[in-house]
Design a protein that fits this description.
Helix 7 crosses helix 11 (343-372) and helix 8 (288-295) crosses helix 11. The longest helix has 30 residues, at 343-372. This protein has two domains: 2-201, Trna Endonuclease, Chain: A, domain 1; 220-372, Yope Regulator, Chain: A, CATH 3.30.1460. It is built from eleven helices and 14 strands. The chain is globular. Helix content is 38%, strand content 24%. By secondary structure, the protein is α+β, with helices and mostly antiparallel strands. The chain has helices spanning 26-36, 87-98, 103-117, 123-131, 156-167, 197-214, 222-240, 288-295, 297-301, 327-330, 343-372, and strands at residues 2-5, 10-13, 15-16, 46-52, 62-67, 73-78, 146-151, 171-182, 185-194, 256-261, 264-271, 274-281, 309-311, 319-324.
Length: 373
């Protein structure tokens, strides 16, 4: 890794180090950095506990416990310069222990974390905000759990086992954490090495094809099937109108679908307050992105016909720019998503609104990214 020296117009090589050389400790340092900045693992995660030891009849404890945006549990195991040979076995045990956790148990686990380590916020409200869900619909840990490993060096017995698990539909990711130094400055690089991001996308697409073939033989809840169908129809609607937003995105059983532009995510969303389109900025803890976008909001309002909301999402890692289906139109849809007779109008609204929203917001988003990067 190199540091760019703008003054000399040259590169300065950073020295790759071992964690032990820098006296960096697993629990005090690496674990804390991830807990405070979970987005470094490539997605928005909500840390709900650390050093969790609430398993019956065992004194074992996992490093970090998190939730992803689908409400699924993510078990994160951290090592420093060497994974050791038993890290996968450890994580599998912890994952099996967590597999039986109920929604209420997870809420309590998260509340104890907030009370001990954070500011004592209400865990339920935080979860609803993070998942953009209603309390009546909140169902956590309904799908398979996921595992993430973070270490500098991976032994072959670890990578071989991980690849075998992935091939058998167990969700595992390996991240390599590499410390560097230059003078008194220390730098950290974290990159996903298994599966490679581009390989992961291919694997997901391949599995979607298998799902299409076997869909009738699988048990899919009524709501999940409805969401898969609705997003599938939206893909068709966009394709028919030569709009390529979702060409490479597979329908899913969640309450949003979308596409990324840099560190932003343009999403079609079904939320607690209704239907919306949005630009979701997951890594905006200092609010620099949203504040800079607000400075340029006149450029957006000049090309977007309606009033857009700029949500800083205080005390959250993320920010959001969005537009909701207006109340006068929303009234006929609220509570009626289950009735497919309303879908044609709703799909038409999503298609037209996202096109206008994207064309208005994205040029400013590109401008702001260049300003800040």
């Amino acid at each position: 890794m190199y540091k760019i020296n703008k003054t000399t117009n040259n590169l300065e090589k950073l020295d790759q180090k071992l964690f032990k050389e820098l006296k960096i400790r697993e629990r005090d340092h690496l674990q804390e950095w991830i807990a405070k900045n979970p987005q470094i693992l490539g997605e928005e995660l909500l840390i709900i506990q650390k050093e969790y030891d609430g398993f019956n009849d065992t004194n074992e404890r996992l490093d970090l416990l998190a939730l992803d945006k689908k409400g699924n549990l993510v078990i994160i195991e951290n090592k420093l310069d060497d994974t050791g040979k038993d890290v996968v076995w450890q994580a599998l045990k912890y994952t099996s222990y967590c597999s039986t956790l109920t929604t209420n148990q997870i809420i309590k686990i998260y509340q104890s974390y907030l009370d001990k380590w954070q500011n004592g916020d209400d865990s339920l409200q935080n979860l609803l905000d993070f998942l953009d869900n209603n309390e009546e619909e909140l169902l956590l840990n309904k799908d398979d759990q996921r595992m993430m490993f973070v270490a500098n060096n991976y032994r072959k017995e670890v990578t071989s086992t991980v690849l075998w698990l992935i091939n058998h539909d167990i969700q595992v990711q390996c991240f390599r954490a590499i410390p560097y130094s230059m003078d008194d400055n220390i730098f950290l690089q974290i990159e996903q090495i298994i599966p490679l991001p581009e390989t992961k996308e291919y694997m997901i697409d391949a599995k979607e094809k298998v799902k299409e073939i076997n869909i009738k033989s699988k048990t899919v809840s009524e709501s999940e099937a409805r969401l898969l169908k609705f997003w599938g129809l939206l893909k068709i609607k966009l394709k028919e109108n030569n709009i390529d937003y979702l060409d490479n995105i597979s329908p899913k059983k969640g309450y949003d679908i979308g596409f990324s532009k840099g560190s932003g995510y343009f999403g079609f969303c079904i939320g607690r307050k209704g239907f919306r389109v949005e630009l979701y900025i997951s890594n905006d803890s200092d609010k620099s992105y949203i504040d800079t976008m607000i400075k340029h909001k006149d450029l957006i309002s000049n090309s977007f016909s309606s009033s857009i909301e700029y949500q800083r999402l205080e005390n959250k890692m993320a920010s959001r720019i969005c537009y909701y289906l207006p109340k006068k139109e929303r009234d006929k849809f609220v509570g009626e998503f289950n009735d497919e007779t309303y879908w044609d109008d709703l799909l038409e609204w999503y298609k037209d609104t996202m096109k206008e929203f994207f064309n208005s917001v994205n040029p400013v988003w590109e401008k702001v990214r260049k300003e800040l990067n």
